[in-house]
Design a protein that fits this description.
The longest helix is centred in the C-terminal third of the chain and has 15 residues. This protein has 255 residues and is α/β, with parallel strands linked by helices.
Length: 255
């Protein structure tokens, strides 16, 4: 499979990459410079800001909870609209590494928490609908979406958008696993956040939270298929995309 990951290396963030280049069975490919995914942006440097500014991103979809944004707000980009679209808005639910503590659930079974969370995300169809509404409003305008690690919440949105464009599941899984090439920078980033407390959490649990494991993404797919039969049905029945919506996205985002 042609490896199309186009990571943009930043000083103050990680896992920032262009989703362009993935092919569909019909021979089209996702346009480059249109869809970007990322981890936390709160520590971007001036150099990072200049680099991202050259991407002409029109919309940022911040998938984090209000408390995460309060601690680690996105910087302001000129001519860019910031949209708060929280996936898993309940602050009492562990969503990423800095939420972990000695009272966190499922700590005896590393990985089980991420499997549960990926299954749970399927129920947030209203949140995903808002992302698609923004994308459909300005499909020609570059979009960036991110959470803290840029892995599971961000991965769910990437999965849905790429699926709507007709990208294969194999390619989507490859994109999800690319996060593992950024683990060292991701860990260093979280270690520098004041809410990160690794002393209270077992290393195996931390590793399970940091890593992109196919069992997590498979849990998302399994829940979709359990409830809707297929990803296509989920996109249409739960999120509300019409054939016309999908055709519009393909017209603007494929080449």
């Amino acid at each position: 499979m042609d490896r199309v990951h186009r990571e943009i290396i930043l000083e103050g963030s990680f896992n920032f990459r262009d989703l362009g280049g993935y092919q569909t069975p019909e021979g089209y490919s996702v346009k480059r410079g249109q869809l970007f995914r990322s981890g936390n942006l709160s520590k971007l440097t001036e150099k990072d800001m200049e680099l991202i500014g050259r991407l002409s991103i029109r919309n940022i979809c911040d998938l984090r909870r209000e408390d995460e944004i309060g601690r680690y707000p996105d910087p302001i980009f000129t001519d860019t609209r910031w949209n708060h679209i929280p996936v898993n808005p309940d602050r009492n639910v562990v969503s990423q590494v800095s939420d972990l503590g000695e009272n966190s659930p499922n700590l005896n079974e590393p990985g089980e928490l991420l499997i549960y969370l990926n299954r749970k995300m399927v129920s947030y169809s209203g949140t995903f609908r808002k992302v698609f509404e923004i994308l459909l409003e300005e499909p020609q305008a570059p979009m960036l979406f991110h959470c803290m690690a840029g892995k599971d919440r961000t991965g769910a949105v990437a999965t849905l958008i790429l699926s709507a464009l007709g990208v294969s599941r194999d390619a989507i899984e490859e994109d999800y696993l690319y996060t593992n090439t950024t683990l060292d920078r991701m860990k260093a980033h979280f270690a520098g956040l004041e809410s990160y407390n690794r002393k209270q959490v077992d290393q195996a649990v931390l590793d399970a939270m940091f890593e992109a494991r196919l069992e997590y993404l498979h849990a998302f797919y399994d829940e979709v298929e359990k409830g809707y039969g297929s990803m296509d049905s989920y996109l249409k029945e739960a999120i509300g995309l019409t054939d016309r919506n999908i055709s519009k996205l393909k017209a603007y985002l494929l080449e």
